[in-house]
Design a protein that fits this description.
alpha/beta, 9 helices, 2-enoyl-CoA Hydratase, Chain A, domain 1, 3-stranded mixed beta sheet
Length: about 260
């Protein structure tokens, strides 16, 4: 099992190709350099696994993630800081580039690094007791806000980065950071429900859809749609899509079909 080599994470495989990844680093699920590396390894491994259809990412206890392990930055010089932060960048890339949808089950506060981790998820199911903030400015640091700005826009991202202000779940939903808000006890179950809905779809088509959406964030609309056309043409070649189209065209029920998902790259 993946979790045996990752003391700060719990990785549990559910049915239907769903995996739950849980931050488990009491008391605040703060992220150390080792935790960055463990998250990177887990998400890269799950991304390459053809049996995985969706991932639920959450935290153990009252917090989703309280931020970076502040002690790691004591007396850290410029070069050493950049070396350390390279571990963070590779971790974030592994989550963002994961080929299957990552559903954040945000069970409590997501602060600093925790807010970035939440922002990297495809969809966020948020507890009514959750909160979001970039507190780094309050201790004289500049927090990373580019991943947040993708979701909430420059104005809200700058407000949070410059002041350290906190967003509650409803305000987070209003600005586009929270997608679904539920009772605290329902966060993981609602995220699993959504993961199971995704898992029923053509697995390659889901991976292709994510690849297209990720690429579109860094391309013009015309370039993005050109890339999407290639993805659509690829999906059309899968047995599941071909059977579904024939069934719809001839008004009959689709025949049972099974298909091993291939990588979207």
């Amino acid at each position: 099992m993946i979790q045996e080599a990752n003391p700060f994470l719990a990785v549990r495989r559910e049915d239907e190709g769903i995996v739950i990844v849980t931050l488990d680093r009491a008391p605040a699920n703060a992220i150390s350099r080792d935790t960055y590396d463990q998250l990177r390894t887990v998400f890269n491994t799950l991304s390459r696994d053809p049996d995985v259809r969706a991932i639920v990412f959450t935290g153990n206890g009252r917090l989703f993630c309280g931020g970076n392990e502040v002690g790691d930055f004591v007396d850290l010089g410029f070069e050493a800081a950049n070396t350390y932060l390279a571990h963070a960048r590779l971790c974030y890339a592994a989550i963002y580039d994961c080929e299957v949808p990552v559903i954040g089950a945000i069970n409590g506060a997501a602060a600093g690094t925790g807010l970035i981790l939440a922002s990297l998820c495809d969809i966020r199911v948020v507890s009514e007791k959750a909160s979001f903030l970039l507190p780094e400015i309050n201790i004289g640091l500049a927090g990373g806000a580019c991943h947040l700005a993708r979701l909430v826009g420059q104005g809200t991202a700058r407000l949070m980065a410059y002041t350290g202000c906190k967003l509650g779940p409803e305000e987070a939903r209003r600005v586009g950071l929270a997608d679904i808000v539920v009772q605290p006890e329902d966060v993981v179950s609602r995220a699993l429900e959504l993961a199971r809905e995704i898992a029923k779809k053509n697995p390659l088509a889901v991976r292709l859809a994510k690849a297209g959406l990720n690429r579109n964030e860094t391309q013009s609309v015309k370039e993005g749609f050109e890339f999407e056309c290639d993805l659509i043409a690829t999906a059309l070649q899968t047995p599941l899509a071909a059977e579904a189209i024939r069934s719809f065209a001839f008004k009959r029920s689709p025949a049972p079909a099974s298909e091993e998902p291939r990588r979207a790259g």
